[in-house]
Amino acid sequence: MTLETGQPSASQLIDAYRSGEVSPLEVVESSLRRIERLDPNIGAFREVLHERAIDEARYRTDQLVRGEWAGPLHGVPVAIKELFDVEGAPGCYGSTILGDRIAPSDAAAVARWREAGAIVVGTTRSHEFGWGITTQHAEFGSTLNPWDTDRVPGGSSGGSAAALAVGMVPLALGSDTGGSIRIPACFCGIAGIKPTYGRVAKRGAVSLAPSLDHPGPLARTVPDLAIGLAAMAGYDASDPSTLAVEPPSGSVTASLAGVRVGVVADLHLRPLRRDHQARFEAALEAMSGSGAQLVPLGFAGADEIRPTFAAIQMAEAHHTHSSVLGFFPERASEYGADVRGRLELAAGVTLAEYLSALESKRVLRHRFARLFDEVDVVVTPITAGGPSTTSEPDISFDGTGEGPFRDVVMDYTVPQDLFGLPVCAVPNGLDDDGLPLGVQLTGPALSENAVMNAAAGAAELLESPGFPPVAYGR
Q: What pTM was estimated for this model as a whole?
């Protein structure tokens, strides 16, 4: 097994451990060397836990020698988005306000990965408090897109996505409130899944908007997503948002044969850039050619989704920062300018507007659920255009020309968070700028297995972007 040209998948590592081809210590040492060599060019990691990771890798290696197997992630190196606590590691949540904070214990999702045998090699950069989609930070340093370091990687799980894109780790933890797993997965050329709301405990992670936050894994392959999600999912007695249901299976059967795939033109609220449109149409053709049944559907009220989401997200975020954390407005000057500006806007959302948005959410969610009377999954783009530049992070281009980066992307990513539905992002080749793009498949609540089966089938058909040149030192 070759380690120095990029991490094998988690599935491959597990097989190699079982056969004795390689040890967890060798793999973690390789991961740390790769981080040391490549991360100065990308800035994916907030903190590398070198000594602790080596110690844990030795322990997991000794376990294998004794014939002991910790679980489905035994010896797999993982990275953790800095919005989740990692015991003993800096826990600033991407903000200078908490610059000296050390996490007292592992977040629930981190603890479950450790229990499954995973080895945490470090924490990855996020947008400040998760409220942004660029992972740029003037004070703490930014993450760059591995495909073009003049571009943003997306966010807010940008550090996790960038680390995966260059093979520093095979699996990483992220979170998604308005697209923060799928956006960087798309722009970095990897896969990610936002599970059903309540599948994964949020305990030990800072909240952006409690009714919209979804922890979930990112990986280079859908089978690895399945392993990672199964290992972190499940009821948590200390987290009232979690569901008392069986976790997903942890495996996938890649197939689109006979799958009814909804194509909902009404959800395409923002015209795609020409090359992105061509790639999306090619993806539909490939899926149809593989046995999927494409079903055109309508959705009344699609233009209400984003305003409904915005009112809920802003009201809840303002409550988090003013009443739960207690930082705003007293410490407003310590926030980054973009997050401070969003909090100031959020202060204007009234209780009546929030309650009206909750009612709109109930109506729209019920209407969206009816789509699955006709289809098994719905396929949509993840973004209408490419990632913004680091020099102008708030501007991008869709099918109509220049526009706000958040609008170019989030019109396609907020529905699944608003409705709490599982959605899996997979790569769909490169655009005319040589940058990755992707598609996402959404299913009804608790249908992660079916969603990942279909997504794995799509991933086998669509062009994989592979590793970016920087991964090879170029």
A: 0.98
